[in-house]
Write a structure and sequence with these properties.
Length: 424
């Protein structure tokens, strides 16, 4: 079998490494990939949202399955494109069609979905510039802090949490009337603030059956103690100690089952990952959001813990036989620490040579923003590498990640030294 993975981050390197362990796969391709995927697969430099280029690549290389890493190609309809094309329609795509991808592509849609199918979530209402004053009135009924979300994709920047009512009103107006986040904020979801601790649960589904993958907690802020600007993610831990069996049972019964049943009821044939962002409020789950793909860096701790053949699971997704597939997870804890470019998430420099990562043997080095230039591995993004390790405890795994990081260097390398600080 020949498999194509779309994307270029740490998540996609983790997919590539996991799939490379399958003896059912003969050739792995990644588009566009990074310096890490280049070592274990063939990188092809095309843009995953250029569907014609994807088609040519698939036909030229006799690809038998496409695994979609990031959300953009899904929301733009890569799966629908395959189904509508005579030459591609029998090649399975792991990732939902446009209708399912709306769970991430529109926060208003996903809140309506949750409400309709009784999935626990914060109470909400949506507004546009045409009913802005109703938005002000709704804000007045809520307690601070106020949560305002741009409906559409906003690269993780479209959510504002504000303490003052006046500020919330002003920001709402900026979003809907002055397009603060472009077209994405022409509709804004305002919701009740949820208390509790956040975590993510990942589900793989063939539309009928599902497997619940390991849970993870990620660290989004740039600064230690969860301070400073939001990033794409600075580290992650799996499993999550406070997500005990009783909590995870509630997640399965109250969230996962109604979500899968809801998709079926609504005629959405969903084949792929569902990332469920959750708040744990005193042992009760409430959904913060759905994403329609795996998280990054959560993938760098979730996939290493899965012992089953990932390609075999994907075949189950494609053939709707996921219930017949075996699935097991190691009890070990996995941690990952992200190495980022100095300055990130604001302006940073690229093309800094990265050294020492070949000497790491106690951890897995997942490349994210890296590329090869003049036979050297250099930085090519804000998030550069995720260093993942196993341990019997969070502390043990983290210690390995940090020891491995001591061997790695690039100009202005930065990372958080306190991943997991709130859990140990
Ligand atoms: N209702 C809410 N109550 C409390 N915090 C929230 C709520 N909604 C979102 N957040 C916080 O804001 C973050 C971003 O919101 P989310 O819905 O995940 O949007 P996105 O990931 O698209 O930016 C969440 O990870 C969570 O920390
Ligand atoms: Mg989120």
């Amino acid at each position: 079998m020949n498999v194509l993975i779309l994307g270029s981050g740490g998540r996609e390197h983790a997919f590539t490494l996991k799939l490379s362990e399958s003896n059912k796969i003969s050739n792995l391709f990644v588009a566009p990939g990074n310096a890490g995927t280049d070592k274990i697969a063939k990188n092809i430099n095309i843009n995953p949202t250029d569907f014609i280029a994807v088609k040519n690549l698939v036909l030229q290389n006799n690809i038998n399955m496409v695994v979609v890493g990031p959300e953009a190609p899904l929301v733009e309809g890569v799966h629908d494109f395959f189904l509508a094309d005579a030459e591609l329609k029998n090649i399975p795509v792991i990732g939902p069609k446009k209708d399912g991808a709306l769970l991430e592509g529109s926060k208003d849609f996903s809140k309506q979905f949750m409400q309709k199918h009784n999935v626990p979530t914060a109470k909400y209402q949506s507004f546009t510039k045409d009913n802005l004053t109703d938005g002000f009135t709704f804000l007045e009924t809520l307690e601070p802090p106020y949560v305002l979300k741009a409906d559409g994709l906003a690269a993780g920047k479209g959510v504002l949490i504000l303490n003052s009512l006046d500020e919330a009103k002003a920001e709402l107006e900026e979003m809907v009337s002055n397009q603060k986040f472009g077209e994405a904020s022409s509709t804004v979801v305002i919701e009740e603030f949820l208390k509790g601790i956040e975590l993510s649960v990942f589900v793989l589904t063939d539309g009928k059956n599902y497997k619940i993958l390991p849970s993870a907690k990620d660290y989004k802020r740039i600064g230690e103690g969860d301070t400073g600007l939001n990033t794409g993610g600075m580290g992650a831990i799996s499993p999550v100690p406070f997500a005990d069996e009783s909590f995870l049972n509630k997640v399965e019964e109250l969230v996962v089952k109604p979500t899968i049943a809801g998709l079926q009821k609504d005629g959405i044939d969903y084949r792929g990952f569902i990332f469920i962002g959750l708040m744990n409020d005193n042992g009760n789950p409430s959904v913060v959001e759905y994403n329609v793909r795996m998280g990054d860096p959560e993938t760098e701790v979730v996939l290493p813990r899965i012992e089953s053949d990932l390609f075999d699971l994907f075949e189950g997704v494609a053939n709707q036989t996921l219930d017949q597939k075996s699935f097991s997870v190691t009890d070990k804890t996995a941690t990952t620490v992200m190495l980022v470019s100095g300055g990130y998430p604001e302006a940073y420099q690229k093309e800094k040579e990265i050294t020492g990562f070949d000497n790491v043997n106690d951890s897995i080095v997942f490349h994210a923003g890296t590329k090869i230039k003049d036979n050297k591995v250099v930085t090519n993004g804000g998030r550069v590498m995720a260093i993942s390790s196993f341990g019997n405890t969070i502390e043990e795994a983290l210690q390995k990640s940090y020891k491995s990081i001591d061997k790695i260097n690039f100009d202005k390398m930065n990372y958080r030294k306190d991943i997991g600080f709130d859990l140990v």
